[in-house]
Design goal:
With 266 residues, the protein is an alpha+beta fold. Helices cover 44% and strands 18% of the residues. Strand 7 and strand 8 form a beta hairpin. It is flat, with a radius of gyration of 31 Å.
Length: 266
């Protein structure tokens, strides 16, 4: 049986692993791991196996390893990772397409029941319909101000009920009701917070941009430059065609005026 590693040995091993990954991979997804279980994390690792590696750890250890690697290599771009290591986060090192990896990670969300004291990540609405509960449960719904009626010997919810709002703490009554109705309102998985790509850091929303989106944004930028250049009469490549056309129109207008004046003289 191998001797158990000391804390110092574990730190050295972790430093070596993270520094090796930083050396090997130029793309990193910083992910939030709140409410993600070990089995779920293992499934994510299996799903990403091939071109990606998931690394978890304490923020202090990750920051320490990043600083060590930046000092060793002289590449201070790695230090851009440090402000991102806040909260319960992990790192996904990848050589694959960032958008595809992000989408693969999103596949591993699992449903979860509400728990007392948990801050709701989304609004929870109980739909109308038959609950399957017997009439003795009516008083329970009344406590939560949920309108019901008895239909064929069971309790039926009449209208949709906004039970919990996003950002609110879940109470014991709400948990009990959702459990009775068999509703698992929340889903949890790794959530991409930031993207690191060879020294650059950007929001994961950028990964959703298509070529059409980029072309549209570029065209809008060119249009703004053109409008500004024409307004202040400052020549730019974008405004040049419009300036030539406008100049041609002015020359043509002057020529017509001179022609008309000459005809009147004769």
């Amino acid at each position: 049986m191998a001797p158990k590693q000391t804390k110092a040995e574990k730190k050295i091993a972790y430093d070596g692993k993270l520094c090796q990954l930083l050396e090997e991979y130029g793309q990193i997804l910083v992910v939030n791991a709140d409410n993600v279980g070990s089995n779920q994390l293992q499934n994510i690792r299996k799903g990403l196996r091939g071109d990606s590696v998931v690394l978890m750890g304490k923020n202090t250890m990750m920051k320490r390893s990043v600083r060590i690697h930046a000092e060793k290599t002289g590449n201070n771009a790695y230090l851009n990772l440090i402000p991102l290591l806040v909260g319960n986060v992990g790192l996904i090192f990848t050589k694959g397409d960032l958008k595809e990896v992000s989408e693969e990670v999103a596949k591993y969300k699992v449903g979860a029941p509400a728990r007392v004291g948990l801050v709701a990540p989304i609004d929870v609405v109980v739909p109308p319909g038959n609950t399957g509960l017997d009439p003795s449960q009516t008083s329970f719904f009344q406590v939560l101000n949920i309108p019901t009626k008895i239909n064929k010997g069971t309790v039926e919810i009449i209208t949709p009920v906004e039970l919990i709002k996003k950002g609110e703490k879940v109470g014991s009554s709400e948990v009990a009701l959702l459990a009775k109705l068999g509703i698992r309102p929340f889903s949890y998985g790794l959530v991409v917070l930031s993207v690191y790509d060879n020294g650059s850091v950007f929001s994961p929303e950028v990964l959703d941009l298509t070529e059409d989106d980029l072309i549209e944004k570029f065209a809008a930028g060119v249009s703004m430059v053109t409008s500004l250049s024409l307004a202040i009469s400052f020549p730019t490549l974008a405004a040049a065609p419009h300036m030539f056309v406008n100049a041609y129109k002015n020359v043509l207008s002057i020529a017509n005026c001179m022609k008309n004046a000459s005809n009147r003289c004769h």
